[in-house]
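Suppose a classmate hands you a notebook page containing two proteins, each written out with its sequence and a corresponding row of structure tokens. How would you begin to make sense of it? This section walks through that situation. The first entry is reproduced here exactly as it would appear on such a page.
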Amino acid sequence: MLDSILLQGFSDWKLFCVDDQSTDNTQRIIKDYAEKDHRIHLIIRKREPKGAQTCRNIGLELSKGAKYVMWLDSDDLIASYCFEQRVLYMDSRKDIDFGIFPAKTFVKDQWEETDTCYGFPIYSDSLKALLTWTLPMVGWTNIYRRESIVSFHLSWDERLLSMQDSDFNIQAILKGLSFAYAYNEGAKVDYFYRVMVDSSITSKLYTDMHFQSHLYLLNKITESLSSNQKTKYKANLEIYFLIFARLFKYDKNIFIQFLKIRWVKENPSFRIRLIAWRFLGFHFTYKLFFRRIHKNEIDSLSEWKEKMKSYLTSGIVSK
């Protein structure tokens, strides 16, 4: 990532590398780069809690005076035109608070064939997409006006252990930030998300700490929605909640806490079916109790995959 930043054609940038108190040689590597380029700054996290979300907030605090801000993950790559493409786009779009740019996944080579991309419109309603567990945008697909983030009181939620990007963009939309997909105006893929084949992140999603984080997220999102939005997105929220229910189903105590979420209690039919599914058996009763929701979920995921496939074969992700 550091090397790909140094290859940028756009030169007016500052990089704040916020180290989450790493125990390997990360700090030494960053110091070496910082000694060679004054635009690179090493900052070690000195406050709690530990986590990427805290580091991102620290970076935002340090970026005073910047016109635009972006967040990058340390193990990914960006195209040499990334900064220039994004800045020029935002300069030309005074009407938006953040722009969304195309990105693709990779394992070894950034231009290898892939089956997943981000930063493309999935539905005409991006909030609907996010509430259906599809990802039209992630933190690193976007460039934000710093003054917009500050004026709308937007920040990374430091209580979340996962799903931070999804929450950040959901809150951005709910707070009223305006945005646009640069793909619609010819933007090229400029971010490459590295898929870690042997990652242990997935297993962490099933730990008690992550379960509590998920419960907090579900409460937060539904409490952020207005009554009209809860009605409008009811079918999408059912999919969203059912995905988490499948995570919680083997932990009785967590599942009971899940049933106590206000939105679940406000939808008694959904709640009763959850209880029946949990205590009568998972496999036999799932399609019986959630046939319509399951169909909606399959349809939404199929639509996402079809749209990704069309984007990936359109030539826009080619080198």
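The notebook's second entry, a different protein, reads as follows.
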Amino acid sequence: MRKNIAVILAGGIGSRFGFYTPKQFFKLAGRTVIEHTVEAFEINDNIDHTTIVSNPFYISQVESLILKNNWKKVNKVISGGKERYNSSLSAVQAYAHEKVNLIFHEAVRPLVTQRIINDVIATLKSYRAVDVAIPSTDTIIQVNGDFIEHIPDRSRQQRGQTPQAFHIELIREAYSIALKDPEFKVTDDCGVVKKYMPEEEIYVVKGEESNMKLTFPEDTYLLDKYLQLRKNELEEVRLEPNVFLNKVAVVFGGSYGIGKEIVTLLNQYGAKAYEFSRSSTQTDISSREDVREALKGVFEKEQRIDYVINPAAVLKTELLMNADYETICETVNVNYLGAVHIAMEAFEYLKETKGKLLFFTSNSYIRGRAFCAVYSSTKAAIVNFVQAIAQEWEPLGIQVNCINPERTTTPMRVKNFGIEPESSLLTPQQVASVSVQSLLKDFTGQVIDIKKKDEK
């Protein structure tokens, strides 16, 4: 039985990326790109081992990531070379005397799905070479200098991705022939097989648009958005009885709406959840002292705090030039400064338990909305704040995420927008359910979208 070896190609230095660090070490959603990539193969049941091919200057950094993540399948870290093929060849040589399948994947494609990996491995049972590609949506032109020379039929054009997978005997033989060619020049491993062993069939597995490659700085924005799409993953979490047993949660803004439903759910599933708000406990999160006293009181009683959750917010819809300064200050102080207070005061407690901090934004954070200028901008600030402290606190084991629900039936919304069709709105219970489920997931720096249209 052949073993399936994932080969993570991380030998590049990211010259086109324009950052001070190679792009595989750029952080997205609280983790480096290579961590997201390796994790996809670590959790796949069909992968036996993983080998990481690294630039020699960064091997110690890769080894540190292996230890930090406690990856069980990574059994080799080997040196790559100047060109892409040098890194692939390094892996081929490392397994030269074993009968294995090599599944090459670029470290800077962090969103490869389990479906793609499984399809590639399944195809290796029938073919010795497998590629992954998606149809080209653009017309491809072949040029000679500055002029079009040929326009291929777009229906037959596809954009190559990775993984690319091979029986080791095949890729070893292809490289053996290629290295004898003084004009040898290819950009990927399937290209080596196609050029030097043209009789070999290379099967193409369907890829996905999200399986994109981080190449330019602009790509980070799209990758970050793809990483936010966690709804389907959260639906896989089932809230079992007592799943939060012995956990302690503090919910600010927990006396009504989404906050109240979160408190109810956490208590229902075994946690001890404490709620604080201006109406029930006279706790004003715009006062750092109030936040400090609330957290201190819970800790003195329970001797731990595992989760701190803040759906508290204020909203008054009006044109900016009609708003009084007191209302503007209250919105900023509660919606933004309140979050800063909560984060700073919760830090020591969450560091001790390696706990989780959960904030809430609004779908208006992407684009400011008329009549909600100050509110929308504070919610945009929350997203940036979450992503920043997620990076700062990730080495300490604290996870920080953000819930982004679409329009939800809450007292605050009714007060500002009146009665709306129920079918167009999420319920507080729906938002609370996804929020609580997110506490069971292992990620940080995420904006978790909750959409009405996602319902089945």
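A careful reader of the second entry would note: The chain has 14 helices and 17 strands.
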